[in-house]
Amino acid sequence: MWAIAFACAISFMGIGLVDPILPKISAALDATPSETMLLFTSYLFVTGIAMFFTSWVSGRIGVKWTLIAGLTLIVVFAAFAGLGGSVDAIIGFRAGWGLGNALFLSTALAAIVGAASGGSRQAIVLYEAALGIGMAVGPLVGGALGEISWRGPFFGTAILMAIALVAILVLLRFPAQSAAERAAARAAAPSITASFRALGNPALLSLSLVAVCYNFGFFTLLAYSPYPVEAAAHAAGLEFGAHELGLVFFGWGLALAVTSVLVAPVLTRRLGLRPVLFVTLALFAVCLVLLAVFTVSLPVLVVLVVASGLFLGVMNTALTEAVMEATDLPRSVASSTYSGVRFIGGAIAPAVAGPIAAALGVSAPYWMGAAAVLLAILVLAVTGKHLAHIGAEHGAPAPRGGTAAEAAPELVEAQAIGVGDAS
């Protein structure tokens, strides 16, 4: 369980790891910001597409071997990225990294629950803690290693993931299953087209559209912000390298982790899911507008980037809970569909932020991100008839004798994936 949790933290680190070294990669490889930000796009796009199929894959080869396949791909392509001699090569290697990340993360929760001896609730808390730690520490590690060389974060990830891979190979065990049990589990696994057909559900489609727009704003901030922050620092006569950028985005990730785990559940329980979604989206849009207005002020940029993590943490948790409550689809299918769509939405933002900044000015990507988040609010309002039921009983206590799955929707997905494992 601890080996998987360690690997989860390292995997989530990969999302923000490159943030502090984007300007350094641009300088070292003579690449434009538009080209360098494609490191996010290739990673997120492949992760998103693969998420549509990972529940089908893990239902057939099992949790353990899906984890091993994902970790192996991450180790190989992270090392190749560190060896890359051009930005195009690194973009391609990040795509392979994204495939490994999709395979690993889609089954990590199932594996933690299956391996835990302290109960499913503790296992899920451990998974959420690993997510928060990874998101917070990723930019910090990227900045520290990136100060030595832009290749350092890639090699560091490969080494840490290789350690996690060996630990999982040695430590992870599942109860043996008979041939009949394995055949029955495979027969019950989702079909290869289940995630695509799930988008025909009006409630899930509505929330998926909200997620696309919201994640466009999210990754506009995450992928683009290192460049205006660095430019504002230089204009102020300050040296602002990978280490300093890493500290800024460590603050952002820490804020995100704290509110996603500690604050969001309290707000959604007291106020309801839809009000929290509306208010948080509005606050995030305001944050992006302020970033667009104050692009030349380093202190304001740093404060706004860190503060945005507070809103993003709440939004991530509330939107995921809404997806889990919105439909009667199998939660493994709803989760993988939503995850795929949100990653694809995030992949679009870095691809367009650079060209728009070059054509319209440094503030333009933030205005574009704010417009996308406002569009998410509009979609949420227009599709209200499909979402009126979400959070209706959100504050009600779980019935006595209820299952852990009823108290923690993520467990349903974990069990649905984990039942097909053949150790």
Automatic annotation (TrEMBL):
InterPro entries: MFS, MFS_dom, MFS_trans_sf, Tet-R_TetA/multi-R_MdtG-like, YfmO-like
Alphabetic keyword roster: Membrane, Transmembrane, Transmembrane helix
Compartments in which it is found: Cell membrane
Transmembrane segments: 36-58, 65-83, 95-116, 123-142, 154-172, 203-225, 245-264, 276-294, 300-319, 340-360, 366-384
Record membrane topology: Multi-pass membrane protein
Occurrences of domain Major facilitator superfamily (MFS) profile (ranges): 1-388
Gene Ontology MF annotations: transmembrane transporter activity
Keyword Transmembrane: yes
Recorded GO CC terms: plasma membrane
UniProt name for this protein: Putative MFS family arabinose efflux permease
Lineage: Bacteria, Bacillati, Actinomycetota, Actinomycetes, Micrococcales
